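Justification of computing resources. Each target in the renewal requires a structure prediction run like the one illustrated here; the chain below, 66 residues long, is used simply to show the kind of job we budget for.
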Amino acid sequence: MAVKLEQQLLDILACPCPEHAPLQVGTAADPEADFLTCTACGRSFPVRDGIPVLLLDEAVEPPAAG
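Resulting C-alpha cells:
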C-alpha cells in the first residue's frame, strides 16, 4: 500500500540524518512500500497508521554497495 500523505507535509519533512535531506515515498526496491526514503543517506523510515516514524533507531539501512 502506498504512503498517502499530504504533499504539503512531504515538502517539509526531512531526514533526521545530518544532511536533513528531503524524503521520497517508498523505497528504491518498492515505490509502493509504506516507507519514506532519504534522498541523501538512503535510509528508509516506516510509515505506521499514516504517521511517519522519523527516528534513526527505526530506520532501515540501505543495502551495502558492492
